TrEMBL record:
The chain crosses the membrane at residues 9-30. NCBIfam families: PRK06129.1. GO terms for molecular function: carnitine 3-dehydrogenase activity. Pfam families: 3HCDH, 3HCDH_N. Belongs to the 3-hydroxyacyl-CoA dehydrogenase family. Its EC number is 1.1.1.108. The lineage of its organism: Bacteria, Pseudomonadati, Pseudomonadota, Betaproteobacteria, Burkholderiales. This is L-carnitine dehydrogenase. Keywords: Membrane, Oxidoreductase, Transmembrane, Transmembrane helix.
Length: 319
């Protein structure tokens, strides 16, 4: 066993995210204690965890036997038992301020002083449910995962203004040890990064259906067979950087006015200012000098070819 096996996490909430986090940490070698106030949830949790482990093993995504991983998860009957001796406590309760507020008061009391207290909140910032008078407020933050986190590894680390920098650094280290890819969100905004990006696409998707431009299936097809394919390999900034010779600055010059008109059509006035474009271009050129542009385009195409080959093979195997 490696050093990570000595880590301990308490998970509060046995719904889909709590179960998924139990899989993530157990697979990484952590000792997991899972608590839910509902006895029925505690009863069903072991079978649900095993079901997910069996599926991961089926696709070669476990390095150990399923029962060995599952054995690291203890279902406990109290919040105190979940938080005891934890390095990290991951709250996975419903998205309601009053519930999270009461839970964090209890967690701050029950967890050891060194433990990070993290919420899996999708939209609510820490300062919405942690009062600045809470003694341990400096270790409280949001750790919002992709769903399910055992397949979508990104986790957004969102500190409040009162969160200690040292706690943020430790949280990033802990989630990295667990095999996730932490992204630090620089300041609290509702929805953070993940859901603000997803929300922008969903708002336009609903509008396109409402306005009779496309059907629900048409929109899903464009994303699944178009945008989604590219975005499974590279992100939106790199996509447009590689789509236009000359890079992202050239793309902004050629396409920026069209995007501005589309935004104005929806009542949104967020122009790409020269300063903003210059900042984004500088970030991209730092990641990819223009003299390496052709090489990266070829890499993108090979990555899409591998993905296309996999999808084709999977479709044949399923038929």
């Amino acid at each position: 066993m490696n050093a990570q096996a000595t880590r301990r996490v308490g998970i509060v909430g046995g719904g889909s995210i709590g179960i998924a986090f139990a899989v993530v940490f157990a697979r990484a070698g952590w000792h997991v204690r899972l608590f839910d106030p509902a006895a029925e949830r505690r009863e069903f949790a072991p079978a649900e965890i095993m079901q997910r482990l069996v599926e991961l093993a089926r696709f070669g995504l476990l390095d150990e036997a399923t029962h060995d991983v599952a054995a690291r998860v203890d279902i406990v009957a109290t919040l105190d038992a979940a938080a005891a001796n934890a390095d990290l406590v991951q709250e996975c309760a419903p998205e309601r301020e009053e519930i999270k507020r009461e839970l964090f008061i209890e967690l701050d009391r029950a967890a050891p002083p060194h433990a990070i207290l993290a919420s899996a909140s999708s939209f609510l910032a820490t300062s919405r449910f942690v009062d600045e008078t809470l003694p341990g407020r400096g270790r409280c933050l949001v750790a919002h995962p992709g769903n399910p986190p055992y397949l979508i590894p990104v986790v957004e680390i969102v500190p409040a203004p009162f969160t200690d920098d040292e706690a943020v650094t430790r949280a990033i280290d802990l989630f990295s040890e667990a095999g996730l890819q932490p992204v630090r969100v620089a300041r609290e905004v509702e929805g953070f990064i993940f859901n603000r990006l997803q929300g922008a696409l969903l708002r336009e998707a609903y509008c396109l259906v409402r306005d009779g431009v496309a059907s629900v299936d048409d929109v899903d097809t464009v994303v699944r067979e178009g945008l989604g394919l590219r975005w499974s390999v590279i992100g939106p900034f790199e996509t447009v950087d590689l789509n236009t010779r000359g890079g992202i600055a050239s793309h902004a010059q050629k396409m920026g006015p069209s995007y501005a008109r589309m935004g104005a059509e929806r009542g949104q006035n967020d122009p790409w200012t020269p300063e903003l474009i210059a900042g984004v271009e500088a970030a991209r050129r730092s990641a990819l000098p223009l003299e390496q542009w052709e090489e990266r385009v070829a890499w993108r195409d090979r990555a899409l070819m591998r993905l296309t080959r996999y999808r084709k093979d999977s479709a044949q195997n399923d038929s």
